[in-house]
Design a protein that fits this description.
Layout lengths: L9 H6 L7 E15 L5 E9 L2 E8 L5 H7 L4 E7 L2 E2 L2 E2 L2 E7 L2 H4 L16 H13 L4 H14 L2 H4 L13 H16 L8 H10 L4 H4 E2 L5 E2 L1 H5 L1 H17 L3 H13 L15 H25 L28 H8 L2
Antiparallel strand pairs: 1-2, 1-4, 2-3, 4-7, 5-6, 8-9
Helix pairs in contact: 4-7, 5-8, 5-11, 7-8, 7-13, 8-12, 8-13, 11-12, 12-13
Length: 342
């Protein structure tokens, strides 16, 4: 491959003037690959390629000489691609003309993996300390011991695990970030809702997604494990919580309520909940989870927006594109009037 072709990140590609035909080269992770059939019966593959700065979709039809190369590479492979920019419905969808799978030696080169692995924007060590402080907030001894027992069981996996394959906080340390963000919201809202048992709510926040440490696997491209496919994180989390709670001698009523939070936090059965939330604590945790999942999509879309991009791609969790253009600086006359009391 020619070294004269500019090596660009996804952010670089999206920042280009949207004119088809610009030659580029990029080192990317093959995040998703799915075989499909068009309405006319022709087979094709739909791919998602990305790096630390973002991702884009790409389609290869059956007559493409690269089709088999991508299939053999498989999800999680790191590839160098050459191509030309192209656009579909206003979104980057380049035409690729060459692919090379990077070897282990290539991946060991300085800076290669750093440019590919998307991380939570907040410092992971600081997030972890905040999570530990959240556990210490739990006053009920057996509930606190239950939470600590679960985190001892799952170990370091929780610190780097993503919170999803693609929907929200789908990057390294994403589960930790999502959980701590929910913890902050819960602490802020507890004084507003005295009907909620604070210890159960905090424990439910901290443990609601812990099953994802078993559900997901993969280093550069997240996929669901065998147990993740057969049981799902709600059931896996329920099992972890029950095991730790019995060991901590948590009383039967609190155990039932804590299990219910884990089983119902997804909100709707069609979203993966085993039951609907039916206690004050479960309702609170479920609503905070939904809020932070959606705001996580918003935050990521804003981070990855190109400098001239007014709207993001359609976000499935919001059923809409997101306006990514920032408000102009400086207060409006209405804002100034409200602040002055006039």
């Amino acid at each position: 491959m020619s070294d004269e072709i500019p090596l660009l990140s996804v952010r670089d590609l999206k920042a280009l003037d949207p004119v088809p035909g610009k030659v580029f080269s990029a080192i990317l992770v093959l995040k998703k690959l799915a075989s499909k059939v068009a309405s006319n019966g022709n087979p094709f593959i739909s791919m998602e390629l990305g790096d630390r700065s973002g991702s884009f979709g790409c389609t290869l039809f059956s007559d493409s000489p690269l089709l088999e190369s991508f299939r053999q590479a498989g999800e999680g492979a790191v590839v160098r691609v050459d191509g030309k920019t192209d656009y579909f419905q206003g979104r980057l969808s380049p035409r690729l003309n060459r692919i090379a799978v990077l070897s282990e030696e290539d991946l060991a080169a300085p800076g290669v993996l750093d440019g590919l692995v998307e991380l939570a924007p907040e410092n992971a060590d600081a997030l972890w300390k905040e999570l530990q402080d959240g556990i210490d907030r739990i006053r009920h001894d057996e509930i606190r011991l239950t939470v600590r027992g679960v985190f001892e069981e799952v170990g370091e996996v929780f610190r780097w695990c993503p919170a999803a394959v693609s929907m929200h906080h789908a990057y390294r340390h994403g589960l930790l970030e999502h959980t701590v963000h929910m913890l902050r919201v819960c602490i802020a809202l507890l004084p507003v809702y005295p009907e909620v048992d604070a210890d159960l709510a905090l424990a439910g926040i901290l443990l609601h997604d812990v099953g994802k440490t078993i559900e997901y696997e993969g280093t550069l491209a997240t996929r669901r494990s065998r147990r993740g496919l057969l049981q799902g994180h709600v059931v896996l989390g329920y099992q972890l919580v029950r095991k730790a709670a019995l060991k901590a001698h948590l009383d039967a009523e609190r155990l039932e309520r804590l299990e219910h939070i884990v089983l119902s936090h997804q909100g709707e059965p069609e979203w993966g909940a085993a039951v609907y939330a039916a206690t004050p604590e479960a309702v609170l945790v479920s609503m905070i989870d939904n809020l932070d999942a959606k705001m996580g999509m918003v935050q990521r879309a804003l981070r990855q927006a190109g400098p001239g991009e007014e709207f993001s791609e359609r976000l499935p969790g919001l059923n809409s594109p997101l306006l990514t253009r920032h408000l102009s600086s400086g207060p409006s006359s209405d804002d100034a009037s409200r602040r002055s009391g006039s």
